[in-house]
Write a structure and sequence with these properties.
The chain is an alpha+beta fold. The protein has five helices and eight strands, in the order αααββαββββαββ. Helices cover about 20% and strands about 30% of the residues.
């Protein structure tokens, strides 16, 4: 796993503070916001490509089934509980899974997660880094960045 994607700025700060986790760090038993069978139950909405953000990782975007049409057409609003899942890879063939970035629709806003490739939640909540970037990307739809 690439160190740059594996450790968030918060995780790096936690290490510097001797293991004390601050800001966005979930309890150790926080589950990922997507099922373990996501590869067969979620819908691919963007195929493998280089991401201009997320440490320039190669990415593939999937959604929970109820979110696919909203994501693809960029119309309406995402239903409560909708999930947008970004797989992040270390290689251009999208075979060497590095981590996940997750958006979960909660009311009128999103909950964000950073998850390691072994499904350990590294960050969870209203993550300022995620919100800051997603609120300024262009084009965007409901804070989903939709660059081709």
């Amino acid at each position: 796993m690439r160190a740059s994607a594996a450790l968030s700025p918060f995780a790096g700060l936690a290490i510097a503070l001797g293991g004390v986790c601050v800001g966005g760090c979930p309890p150790s038993d926080t589950p990922p916001a997507f099922p373990s069978d996501y590869a067969s139950s979620y819908v691919e909405v963007r195929n493998c490509r280089r991401s201009p953000d997320h440490d320039l990782a190669y990415i593939r975007v999937l959604t929970s089934p109820e979110a696919a049409e909203t994501y693809r057409t960029q119309t309406g609003t995402f239903a409560e509980g909708s999930v947008v899942l970004k797989e992040e890879f270390a290689d251009p063939g999208c075979t060497d899974l590095d981590s996940f970035s997750v958006m979960v629709r909660e009311g009128a806003s999103w909950r964000w997660q950073t998850v390691s490739s072994d499904r350990h939640v590294l960050e969870d909540g209203a993550l300022p880094r995620c919100i800051g970037c997603h609120s300024t990307c262009d084009p965007q739809f409901e804070l989903t960045c939709t660059l081709e």
